[in-house]
Design a protein that fits this description.
2 copies of one chain form a homodimer. Chain A is an alpha/beta fold. Chain A has a 7-stranded parallel beta sheet, with helices on both faces. Chain A is built from 8 helices and 8 strands, in the order βαβαβαβαββααβαβα. Chain A has a single domain, classed as Rossmann fold (3-Layer(aba) Sandwich), CATH 3.40.50. Chain A is globular, with a radius of gyration of 17 Å. Chains A and B meet through strand 1, helix 3, strand 4, helix 4 and helix 5 of A and strand 1, helix 3, strand 4, helix 4 and helix 5 of B. Strand 1 of chain A pairs parallel with strand 4 of chain B, so a sheet runs across the interface.
Chain lengths: 227, 227
């Protein structure tokens, strides 16, 4: 049966480019490498952050901004690991913008922090549209969500610097084809690295930690700071 | 370690109440029972719709509005089953509103249709904020997303009339406690029915189909139409 395709509305995005650039530069001069972590609800952002803090806690001082519409369950989980964390509530908004992020950063003690993560609101649409002033954008896609997501949420794949495919321990039970995913990703972002991992079994975590170490080193070189 | 909670912004929602009421009444007088189906990306909305059309295709004429930021993969899948379907593109927006939905409905042939589904944009935040003119709101939550979602996305649970927990065939491999989920749901929506199902194995599908049949009957009674 045939069907129509109807474009129902154009998106008008508020320009927060200037505020994002300001925040990015301020973080750079403070030596804080800032990562915007984005994903759907339940893709495993908090679990990945917990594993990362556990693995790199001796090497780097890590801080986390937890953005949620409501609750503080994630902030509590991160806090229990001894990392500096602040909970941001978006008041119903589906994303963070640079102004909200800057206010979060200003409310935290970031002295001596090497890596700051923003765990963005769980969502593949709105967070992709707003530069929060981060140095890198990392997106998580979990195997249960399916391999067709690059076609449905192209902007998120386009703006990200790294794709982490999470929950790969569940590959045997879901109909998820790596080839299909990668073909979809390539249409949006030909050069983005893709890493596969399971925070549960630990498989693939090392490649993510190595990516992070390399990025911190490169950031410090750019920032003119000795490694 | 302690952490702060910062309220970063209040949400200002455009009022689309009047347009939603108009559309709801127009559908009612046309005898079209209209359901707004909401969930995260990859929770299984399209698969549920496919199973529902396959199971009830002889009993009811079913039509579907597929809302996506981009692509038409879901519309194609539904169309292959012979159901009437239209693809709506939101132009980057993370939700549908009543005006966009009304334009979608106007562009479809709804004559003789018993049940119209809107497959909303995959997202637990924005779709909860907009009345699209539906008679019932049904939300899907998949087991891999986790049992803590009512705390993080309270509005979605508050505004829904039915919660379908999908992918229950994966319960053995995820740390998902039904008791924890239900306790969370109860804090937001004490009376909402919760049904557990797997579109893959078919477990629990009958309860969903029965809910749908009951709702259609009740709708027709209210609409003064003979069943």
């Amino acid at each position: 049966m045939k069907y129509d395709i109807l474009e129902t509305r154009e998106r008008v995005t508020a320009d927060n480019t200037r505020e994002a650039a300001r925040l990015r530069e301020s973080m750079r001069s403070d030596g804080v490498f800032f990562i915007n972590l984005m994903a759907s609800p339940g893709a495993g952002k908090t679990t990945l952050l917990k594993r990362t803090i556990q693995a790199l806690g001796e090497e780097y001082r890590i801080a986390v901004m937890e953005a949620d519409v409501d609750s503080d369950v994630d902030a509590r989980a991160i806090s229990e690991l001894g990392a500096r964390v602040i909970q941001l509530h978006s008041g119903g908004l589906c994303h963070m913008d640079a102004d909200m992020t800057a206010r979060g950063a200003a409310a935290m003690d970031l002295s001596g922090v090497d890596i700051l993560f923003l765990e963005n609101i769980g969502n593949l649409v709105c967070p992709a549209e707003f530069d929060v002033g981060s140095h890198r954008r990392v997106m998580l896609l979990s195997v249960p969500e399916g391999d067709d997501k690059p076609l449905k949420y192209p902007l998120m794949f386009r703006v990200s610097d790294l794709l982490l495919v999470s929950k790969i321990d569940t590959l045997p039970i879901f109909d998820f084809q790596k080839e299909a995913l990668e073909a979809g990703v390539r249409t949006q972002n030909p050069k983005m690295p893709i890493l596969y991992l399971s925070a549960k079994t630990g498989e693939g975590l090392d490649a993510w930690l190595d990516w992070l170490r390399r990025e911190v080193r490169a950031f410090r070189t750019r920032a003119g700071k000795e490694d």
